[in-house]
Amino acid sequence: MTDDVAVVGAGLTGCLLAYYLARRGHRVDLYERRPDPRTADAERGRSINLAISERGLDALRRVGLEHRVMADALPMRGRMVHPPTGTPVLQPYSADGTRAINSISRGALNNTLLDAATSEAGVTVHFEHRLTELDTGKGALTFATPHDEVHAEARVVFGADGAGSAVRGHMLAQEELDESLDFLDYGYKELTVPPVDGEFALDPGALHIWPRGSAMMIALPNPDRSFTCTLFWPTGGTASFASLSSPAAIERHFRTHYPDLFPLAPTLVDDYLANPVGLLGTVRCTPWQAGGSVCLIGDAAHAIVPFYGQGANCGFEDVVVLDRCLDEADSWQGALELFDARRKVHADTIADMALDNFVEMRDKVASPMFRATKAVEHTLERLLPGRYVSRYELVSFSTVPYADVRRRVAAQQRALGGAFALLTGGIAAATARLSRRNRL
Ligand SMILES: Cc1cc2nc3c(=O)[nH]c(=O)nc-3n(C[C@H](O)[C@H](O)[C@H](O)COP(=O)(O)OP(=O)(O)OC[C@H]3O[C@@H](n4cnc5c(N)ncnc54)[C@H](O)[C@@H]3O)c2cc1C
Description:
By secondary structure, this protein is of the alpha/beta class. It folds into three domains: 5-74 and 99-181 and 282-359, FAD/NAD(P)-binding domain; 183-279; 369-439, no CATH class. Helices cover 41% and strands 23% of the residues. It is built from 13 helices and 19 strands. It has helices at residues 12-23, 54-61, 66-70, 106-119, 166-173, 247-257, 268-274, 299-302, 311-328, 332-364, 368-383, 391-396, 402-439, and strands at residues 5-8, 28-31, 49-52, 74-76, 78-81, 89-92, 101-105, 123-126, 130-135, 140-144, 149-153, 156-159, 178-193, 207-212, 215-221, 227-234, 278-286, 289-290, 294-296. A hairpin with a 5-residue loop joins β15 and β16. α2 (54-61) crosses α9 and α9 (311-328) runs antiparallel to α10 (332-364). The radius of gyration is 24 Å and the shape is globular. The structure holds flavin-adenine dinucleotide. Residues 8-14, 31-34, 47, 50-51, 130-131, 160-162, 166, 188, 230, 278, 298-299, 306, 309-313, 315 line the site of flavin-adenine dinucleotide. Catalyzes the hydroxylation of L-kynurenine (L-Kyn) to form 3-hydroxy-L-kynurenine (L-3OHKyn). Required for synthesis of quinolinic acid. One of its GO terms (biological process) is kynurenine metabolic process. It is an enzyme of class 1 (oxidoreductase). Pfam families: FAD_binding_3.
């Protein structure tokens, strides 16, 4: 199985995939619609940094890239929850407070992966090549470039071209898959907190959250000691991105709802006016592959909302799963079918969990009940090491497949529910005994 492979999209997943495939001995052509990001300005409006956790690190570690990527990462050991008034509270991610997710610059990560891919003799990257046509049966690709139209062929084509995948679009047009796109009525906008006197303006060891019911702001640290804030808010309605446009109204809004953040963000009003509102949605499609010759991977197959910080992690994990399928199967068809059969259920699961986590981050993290539940969870994790593990830990600090995480958490909750029922039943019986005794 050493045929020529085309990977469309040199984003995070596409670069890592090209690297893995080249190490297996394949000749890989990697096509990217944008110019080389190592020489061009970064694209505005995409998240500037993201959180990489165990699944992503595992995929990088397997091919010796973890240390290169982690050199610039900033560990975040918990959520720092900022109430509208009062002192922020740190909620550690793990029972012992040591486990961290890692804030990484998207651009730096992409460049490291591009460098890795292009260091392999078998990889050729073609920038400014936008896929416009794909005949999936023949593996015939057509690209628009700044100069002319380019035609290419490959035995296998991977669509790693993101949520709006052109490869998926062509599979759909050729009736090779069904898809559903569910957009949230929320969008996101990025704002900046610069360093103060050369230092971080907020604790860089935490992911900061301002939960405000129908809105939520988060901030992740950057190596240059700034923070990138992302405001999640409805796109339309009375309290929404659409409702706020004048500088005075923007200033009033942020002073009122984010009083500790506003003084730290001197360019907030300008950022707000200049930066676009990004859309958030979930892409589901099936099957991911057609005829053993074309296959979707990463966001192209399963874009999810960002509230679990798992989109890129999941894309990297796809590459590991595909690599295993290639080990096990003796044909491309066998490997791609196996990949599709094995992986989709897990991608569907994290898509659902990411939607659930939005409600948790936006509404629940600020409540005393949530904090108490987390404290109980951490206590159970300490008392029953390896036997009780919270959903967050299993998702972020393990490589337990996502659907297995869901099953395991449900089983833990049933067991806890049983223990709770026994406990409350015991208390009720004891109370009844006491009151009988008192009547006697
Ligand atoms: C606000 C926000 C915050 C996020 N935070 C996190 C986080 O903390 N942790 C995490 O793990 N994930 C996070 N994600 C998700 C993460 O960004 C994505 O899951 C990840 O970028 C997907 O990588 P990809 O390579 O599959 O797709 P993309 O990153 O979308 O890359 C696709 C590539 O294909 C190229 N392309 C597109 N069309 C064509 C074409 N026709 N021809 C050629 N090339 C094409 C694009 O230019 C791009 O380079 C976040 C997402 C958002 C929106």
